[in-house]
Amino acid sequence: RCSRASSAGPDAPDRGRALLPVPRGPERSARRHPVEEGLEAAVTEFFSEAERLGTRVLLPVDLVVEDPVRQTVSTVPVDTVADGLLARDVGPATAREFAEAISGSKTVFWNGPLGLAEDPRFAEGTRSVLASLAQAPGVHVAAGGDSARIARDLGVYGQFSFISTGGGAALEFVEGESLPGLAVLPDAN
Asked: Where is this region: Disordered (predicted)?
């Protein structure tokens, strides 16, 4: 059972792009986009199911954005992002909210950075949340090569109960999908 779920970052849209104010890719504006056509029912079902289960869904409340024309970086509330700005990281208010949710969690499944963490200007959200995760008790699982690299770079790799460098496969496993590499194992003997 999941009591809280948070979602942000450049790869989060692969699994829930319609739920997030952070679009994928540097060419996309950070402005909140309408629900992607064809996903309206899935989005409605997701939030209905979360409400039914008592799961609190956390989404970014502020973003670190880059203006590629002016070559500036600023933090703005998620609902006030101007056209042309690129979402690069979660802002400090979002990082605090995510860190608070982590501190009270028994199990945390983390899949990837919260922003463009390979650029130091956009790594603070990930650093902050990861530092709080390292201090929290409980089971911590990380999925994805970026997750493993960032945990190693920040010196908290050993704080995780398990790290999988196969982020997509780990998500499919958690979703209950059959994994071809594992499906054949029972037949090996």
From this structure: 1-34
